[in-house]
Amino acid sequence: MRFPLIVLVVYAHSLGFGNIDVTAYSTGWNVYHFFSEMISHNFTKLAVCWFYTISGYFFFYSLKEGCFSAKWVIGKWKKRIRSLLIPYLIWNILFVLLTLLKDWALTKAGLYVRDDARWLLDSGISYWFWGGPADFPLYFMRDLMILSLFAPLWYLFVRKCKWLSLALLVIMYVSPFCPSIPTMRAMFFFPLGAWLGIWKINMLAICRSVKIPAALCTVILLPIATYYNSSDYHEWLLRALYPFAMISFMNICDKLASNEKRCEWLVSMSGTVFFIFAVHELFILGWTKGLFLRLIGNGLAASYVSYICVPIIVLTVCVLLYKLASRIMPKTLAFMCGGR
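Now predict its structure.
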């Protein structure tokens, strides 16, 4: 599932982060906005939900009953230093340095500069590594590190109160509770994944058993959530949509993996996922969108072409950069990607 999920992440970011009001009128631009908003600002949000769920699931899945100890916890935290903290620092610092270098080079060349460097410097270190962060998609890693610190306490509670712990998660999910750090999705889906991993629940079996109802609910809720894209109801509609969309997406991936060649290809591409996640916002996405804007304009037909093609080109460029880096500096690349 990892590579299909990162495809969704790139499509989510390709449209920007502000929701656009949509209407039911079937005119050209309204249809485009409905289509793009439905994908990028509604359906693709399930990607982060699944990444949190998978992270929580495998945090505890290999832990055998009776083996939980301080030594095990410290070992897990040490691994997270290598796999999360070090890459998090590296990529955020790299983002800041490359932004400073880019603005300096464009200024020296006498070209137009948006002055991203000044904005970053004014934002300060706290924004680079906490409030933003600088390399924005890495907020996922920030939240994951926070939740990993408290995961052992969650384990103890879940082991003693199996159904009460699940009930508290559900109550939190349907409440107005909506923190910004960690995000709501992190606060619910990582602990949910951990709960499933602690009790060794087969997620795929569950998803297969409710395939048709989940698909129907996704088809119904997705356009409704899109229609209320900028309303006060949007957050609640998304919370209703997430479980069904996530189940449907796992079933789609299950179908893809049923073919041996497709499965082998998806597995082979999974090694590129963290690199794509970290690097696609390092000018690649913005410059590709800018290139399309200059080449084909921003008319209706051009907007459809750009929306569909830009993420594909960004993914291709990222994969090629990954393969190049893996040839010329494999150890450095592995270190920057947390040993992945």
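The two ends are 16 Å apart (CA to CA).
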